[in-house]
Amino acid sequence: MRPAKIHILTARRLLVLVSTAILLSSCAWFPSVKEQPYKLALSWGEKGSDPGQFNDPTGIAVSADEMFVSDARNGRIQVFDFNGRFIRQIGKPGEGADELGRPMNLAIVNDELYVADYWNDRIQVYALDGAHRRSIGASGSGPGEFNAPVGVAAGPNGDLYVADFYNQRVQHLRRDGKFVRQWGMTGKTGFRAGQFNYPTDVALDNGGRLYVADGYNDRVQVFEQNGDFSHKWGGPFAMNISGPFIAWFATATSIAVGPQGNIFVADFYNDRVQKFTPGGAFLTVFGIRPGGPAHTAIAVAVSAEGAVFVANFDLHRVEKWVAD
After folding, report:
1. Rounded to whole angstroms, how far apart are CA atoms 239 and 105?
2. Whether this model's pTM surpasses 0.85
């Protein structure tokens, strides 16, 4: 009889351990909301090609007092004030030195606008007044070459970090395009740390830490200034498991660092923006309510005052969200 009792006690202990593990995992995988969601304060735009209209807005960035929007199929960047008033246009469709072929995510550093020029396989750099300054990169899979760049970030010294979509990697380049390093294996997808499945955007914090929207792995990956992997988050174990739950993603398409260092992620197929601490702890979520239009949050940017601007892909408009 003793062996049977020991067996029963062991089974009970195992059940307790498993139940405890599941409970702890649930707390990690299904966190609660820590902050109130943001509220929609303003929206503007509709489908078209006139000033203030869009045809697939896909990227967004802010300066001290202006907001820049990638108007992808119109092959241009439109500039607005924070109240939605059109100011000017940058670029035009084409393959020329100062032209754009489906501009995607944007970055602004040191009064320069960096544009991921998807179809032209390069990064275009403009002054904020629209003057073209330089082009970086060319088509290919070698160092310093791109196959559909979709996201770009720049350091204070002009170093570039580029989400190289079809090459399945993120590249670090000097200001002149000289190759420094890359993360990910060229042309190969993966779900382990430091591997990517169509990376879509990148952002730098004030300490030089690199945040990567690892698009179809449905997660965020973080790398230290020296290039070492730091941490990742998104769904169970951040291993390419998508879902509609909070702190999970269904294709992360854009990432931005807020003025207090928090991380905002455009969660495209879930039609929302999620906010996290730099360590990946979930804070809040906001966007179109269930039952509304699909594919609404493709790009996100945050002003110095904390207003969140979202490129609404499906409705061809821009939205301004503020803390409630």
Report:
1. 24
2. yes
